[in-house]
């Protein structure tokens, strides 16, 4: 940190070989526990989201589980609803699902079939974009449900993995890039 300017990267710790050998995990929990960083990150992401054109945001859709943290806070800050994208088997009612492949696992994400009205303006949020498979799969699922995905917002982007390209056509923001 210099003066009053936060360097958010100072609050993201690298953990080598987690959760599998060869993976460098970006641990955001130090950023979350520091009030200035948490609120500073939320302010920057919500300012970007408010700048999206075309009539505001109806819901923020956040990915289970770390995407819930800022996703819910963004929804509160933007004055809109929050839609959880859950891991398979966690939602009790009729749902739509998609299979997504990350760097080290394959998972199924689900959303309630009535999570929002058709034509709703949706802001997609997750903590990290890496390969972009989870994000692009989730965005496609939200669009199949009738949502108009107006943007995708991330706390961290692993730029060398090229995930942003899989969201081609969607406004995309990341606060921290590696």
Characterize the structure shown.
By secondary structure, the protein is an alpha/beta fold. It is globular. Strands 5-6-4-3-7-8-9 form a seven-stranded mixed β-sheet, sandwiched between helices. The protein is built from four helices and nine strands; from the N terminus they run ββααβαββββαββ. Strand 7, helix 4 (133-144) and strand 8 (148-157) form a beta-alpha-beta unit. The chain has a domain at 55-177: Rossmann fold (3-Layer(aba) Sandwich), CATH 3.40.50.
Q: What is the strand and helix layout of this fold?
A:
Layout (H helix, E strand, L loop, with lengths): L12 E4 L7 E4 L1 H5 L1 H16 L8 E5 L2 H13 L2 E7 L7 E7 L4 E7 L8 E9 L3 H12 L3 E10 L14 E6 L1
Parallel strand pairs: 3-4, 3-7, 7-8, 8-9
Antiparallel strand pairs: 1-2, 4-6, 5-6
Helix pairs in contact: 2-3
Number of helices: 4
Q: Major β-sheet, in short?
A: 7 strands, mixed
Poorly predicted residue ranges: none
Strand count? 9
Helix percent band: 25-40%
CATH architecture classification of the domain at 55-177: 3-Layer(aba) Sandwich
The CATH class name of the domain at 55-177 reads Alpha Beta
- Overall 3D form: globular
Rg is 16 Å
Q: What is the H-and-E element order?
A: EEHHEHEEEEHEE
Main-sheet strand order equals: 5-6-4-3-7-8-9
Query: What is the fold named in CATH at topology level of the domain at 55-177?
Result: Rossmann fold
Quick structural summary:
26% of the residues lie in helices and 33% in strands.
Q: What are its keywords?
A:
Rossmann fold; alpha/beta; single chain; 178 residues; two-stranded antiparallel ribbon; seven-stranded mixed sheet
